[in-house]
Amino acid sequence: MTEFIHTQNSFANGEIAPEFYLTKDIHGLAKLENMDVLSGGGLTRRPGLADIANLAGCARIFSFDISEQENYILVFTNFSIQIYSGGSLIHTLVSPWADTALPKIQFAGRGDSVVFVHPDVCPYILTKTGSNSFSLDKFSFYDTTDLVPQVPLMTYDDMRNISIAVTAGPYGVKSATFTTSANYWTASNIGTIVCFNNQKWKIIEYISATVVYATSTVEYTLPINPITDWTESAFDNRHGWPHAVTFHQDRLVFGGTRYTPGGIWMSRVADHHNFDVGTGLDDEAIVTTLLSKERQQICSLISSDKLQVLTSCGEWAIANQPVTPSSMDIIQHTSVGSATTVSLPPQKIEGETVFISGTLKEIRKLSLDTLGERYNADDLCAFSKHLINQPVDIAYNNVSKQLYIVNSDGTMAVLNQNTALGISAWARYITYGNFTSVAISGGETFVIIEKSGTYKLAKFTNTALNDSGTYNIEFCVSGIPLNFSGHRPKHLRLRKINLRLFETKSAFINDMRVELPNEIYTPSHPGFSGDISMNFLGSQLDGSISPWTIHGSEPMPITVFSVTLYGQYKI
User: Fold this and answer.
1) Which contacts of 522-526 are long-range, i.e. CB under 8 A and separated by 24 or more positions?
2) Is the pTM of this model over 0.90?
3) Burial (0-12, 13-18, 19+ Cβ within 10 Å), 470
4) Distance between CA atoms of 445 and 429, rounded to whole angstroms?
5) How far is CA 446 from each of CA 46, 101, 237, 255, 470, rounded to the nearest angstrom?
6) What is d(CA 102, CA 78) in angstroms, rounded to the nearest whole number?
7) Which whole-number Å values give the CA distances from 273 to 66, 191, 305, 508, in the listed order?
8) Does residue 405 lie within any of the structural domains?
9) Nearest residue to 113 (alpha-carbon basis) of 61, 66, 63
10) Is 253 a member of any domain?
11) What letter would DSSP give residue 234?
């Protein structure tokens, strides 16, 4: 048998799939559960969870950060929003979203307000109105001076070749009766804005498929002939509401509706409620549509160096600086596509946009090429796709440099990312229940945990050595099977394993407790730091399985810098 010494002093690639075990120059692991990879490549147990509140039912959480000092967590439940600050509930609001609608909500914040969108519900705006007080109101598309609706307007295919006869209405000189030449109206048209002859009308009552009542803000003169040239609001109950929202170059930007999935609507500059395109001046509103052979459903909008537009079929960008009605250079860069069944907001990591692919199995990173002209969509989880399982939420903590992916099976895939130091390590988090949502606020990571139909709001904290004050954290890390000269050894005899530890008080290796000095167990002692060895004389292992596993569940710290194996092998 051949003698060997094998040292692994970097775990920078985290848990990798078995097909990559033989890959050279990879610092991976066969299993990494409830442990994080440090910036130097070592391993430490993940933080514990501290409970904040019990929730009434299933929920999704969002962050609302006004400044470094004002940070809030918004807990969306069935037709309700609870607002938390510093771990305390400070305000509760009635909301228009049922719990079944929560997966498709998107938002964009600016200052002390945040705009929420959902494809089946009109946009709402949440505003901080005072100390610990907030309001939630329908987003208003009205000019602040004359209250004329400034909603974006569209001409739809099903309204072509239909004319409107306009007659006096039943509600005074500012009302009218609209009678179409063919069946067109539905009850969902109530609230729709109709525009013709430079005058805007709001439908207030549905009578039949050909007749509705409408009102205007000004008196009007009855047109002699039926109206053949008319437009309708881009956003309403009939045609749908925006899927995506962001702020870009001081414009509020909406993207994608049920009737116009590839539509992009930008407000006037510094006038975020006004979507009137006017005469096409540089600061006026913009309406455009992605042109493609495929149906492009806009899934996300991201304000970066360019306005990035992620659709069901690919990744686009509007590069103009600034964007104006006469300057709209829209290019599709890549063809990965995003999910349409759930809103998974892209995250900014080290200046690049990270998003989940439409297959719900890949984490992609949009980065510019060396010329700064074209985007690439690199795969961030190429070695660890087995950890991604139908994601339902995503968030990035810029302080801890961790990307959290909540899976539909209740686990979390966690990426420790530090490109400058060569760290790109995926791990799996598990707890006593199921993770269902995640959000970052004020540099802290908040989660919702479900167990047996009950839900809790909690947060990760380094001061907690267990979860919810009760459940021990079961951590486990296993080395990849050893590879010698391109062969897997048939027999492997381990004589000794050496661990380099830092401030550690408890560890097991291959089901045996690591014996540490007694003096470290005083409360004030930080834990053992240094090398510790365990002998495994006579042990025989199959060379195709992990040669070592470090594990434990005791509420004590552990950090591992390196693992060294001494033994013999036979091919």
Assistant:
1) 526/557
2) yes
3) exposed
4) 13
5) 14, 21, 34, 28, 18
6) 9
7) 20, 17, 24, 60
8) yes
9) 66
10) no
11) S
Q: Answer yes or no: are the C-beta atoms of 251 and 266 closer than 8 Å.
A: yes
Q: CA-CA distance, 340 to 357, in Å (whole number)?
A: 10
Cβ neighbours of residue 322 closer than 8 Å, sequence gap 6 or more: 249, 282
What pLDDT, in 10s, does the model give residues 509-530? 999 999 999 999 999 999 999 9
Instruction: For 139-208, give the DSSP string.
Output: PP-B-TTT--B---EE--GGGTT--EEEEE-TT-TTEEEEEESSS---GGGTT-EEEETTEEEEEEEE-S
The SS3 assignment for 553 reads coil
Query: Two tokens at 249?
Result: 């170059």
In a domain, residue 309? The reply is no
247 falls within a domain: no
| pLDDT tens digits for range 366-411 | 998 877 778 999 999 999 999 999 999 999 999 999 999 999 999 9
**Domains contained in the chain, number:** 3
- Give residue 553's domain range: 2-31+484-570
Nearest to 246 by CA among 424, 106, 50, 410: 106
Interval 75-105: pLDDT, tens: 999 999 999 998 899 999 999 999 999 999 9
Give the three-state DSSP class for 449.
Answer: strand
Listed residues 469, 493, 515: the one ending a domain = 469
Question: Rounded to an integer, what distance in angstroms lies between the CA atom of residue 418 and that of residue 236?
Answer: 44
